[in-house]
């Protein structure tokens, strides 16, 4: 009797190894993918792991990858790479990886492992006024606890804020965007936007060359918003020290001119720009140079 049991046991093991050699695994996870020999499978299930945000729908993500259960899949093939690219385009994840969980016959189980980018829970400005904050907030298009924070988000914030102040004349504004972990929320950050506006850049002079269609005065009139200023008025009437008739005498003029210094001239021309417009066959070239640099060259010379 014992010999018969031993014989049956040995036959069972022989049958088991034979079925493995023939590619049948009776529910065992083979996890064997021959990347040198493409094979067609049917997707049995697709699982996404690593998503914590409640506003991300897992079913929609699976549909977006194209790895929907029931569809055919060739491994190796381009389906996995296309699925990864599709998820990257969403700009929600910092890493995406696809693995084969198991293979049973012609059925394949897919696992998609992702790591979410941190979400912006709040953001704050420094160096700006309340009205400027209110103007810029809708321009940034940041939704609390939804908008992810990454390099592309930081660049978007910097460019938006820079453009906003440039339109207001602050061409040399310095923008610094950085994030700190929000310890009160999972995988969240608070974004800080530090702004140093610096002095406004004003137009000192506009030169127009090559214009033969209309008068320069008419063109300059259309640019009145630039508030071009080309003269330095040494006789600025200070309310605390008003100009009198005596100031216009030869002695008075000498006293005023002798009171001028490099510093108060620099205060006038600093951050003012010269704009030169050259019109060539309907092509307009605009050149800009800073008055304070030109002044320094003259002084050093």
Summarize the structure.
With 301 residues, the protein is an alpha/beta fold. The chain has helices at residues 2-21, 58-65, 79-88, 130-140, 151-167, 216-222, 250-258, 262-269, 291-300; strands at residues 39-49, 72-75, 93-104, 107-116, 119-126, 174-181, 188-196, 202-209, 272-280, 283-290. The strands form 3 sheets. Strands 2-1-4-3 form a 4-stranded mixed beta sheet. A 3-stranded mixed beta sheet has the order 5-7-6, with helices on one face. The protein has a 3-stranded mixed beta sheet with strand order 8-9-10.
Largest sheet geometry: 4 strands, mixed
Determine the number of helices (DSSP H or I, runs of at least 4 residues): 9
Helix content: 25-40%
C-alpha termini separation = 117 Å
Task: Tell me the domain tally.
Answer: 3
Computed Rg: 36 Å
**Average of the residue pLDDT scores:** 75
Descriptors:
single chain, 301 residues, Ubiquitin-like (UB roll), four-stranded mixed sheet, three-stranded mixed sheet, alpha/beta, disordered C terminus, 3 domains, 10 strands
């Amino acid at each position: 009797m014992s010999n018969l049991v031993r014989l049956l046991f040995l036959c069972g093991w022989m049958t088991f190894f034979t079925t493995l050699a023939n590619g049948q695994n009776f529910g065992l996870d083979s996890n064997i993918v021959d990347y040198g020999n493409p094979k067609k499978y049917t997707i049995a299930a697709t699982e996404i792991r690593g998503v914590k945000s409640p506003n991300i729908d897992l079913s929609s993500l699976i549909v977006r990858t194209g790895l929907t259960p029931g569809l055919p899949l060739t491994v190796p093939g381009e389906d996995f790479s296309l699925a990864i690219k599709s998820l990257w385009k969403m700009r929600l994840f910092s890493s995406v990886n696809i693995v084969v969980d198991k293979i049973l016959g012609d059925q394949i189980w897919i696992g998609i492992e992702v790591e979410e980018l941190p979400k912006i829970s709040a953001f704050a400005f420094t160096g700006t006024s309340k009205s400027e904050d209110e103007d810029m907030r809708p321009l940034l298009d940041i939704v609390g606890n939804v908008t992810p924070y990454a390099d592309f988000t930081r660049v978007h914030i910097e460019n938006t804020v820079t453009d906003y102040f440039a339109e207001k004349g602050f061409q040399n504004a310095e923008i610094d965007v950085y994030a700190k972990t929000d310890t009160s929320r999972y995988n969240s950050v608070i974004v800080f936007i530090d702004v140093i506006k610096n002095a406004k850049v004003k137009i000192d002079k506009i030169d127009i060359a090559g214009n033969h269609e209309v008068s320069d005065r008419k063109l300059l009139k259309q640019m009145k918003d630039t508030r071009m200023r080309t003269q330095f008025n040494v006789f600025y009437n200070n309310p605390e020290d008003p100009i009198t008739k005596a100031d216009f005498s030869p002695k008075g003029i000498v006293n005023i001119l002798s009171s001028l210094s490099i510093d108060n001239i620099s205060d006038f021309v600093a951050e003012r720009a010269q704009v030169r417009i050259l019109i060539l066959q309907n092509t307009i070239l605009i050149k800009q140079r800073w008055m304070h640099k030109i002044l320094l060259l003259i002084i050093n010379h």
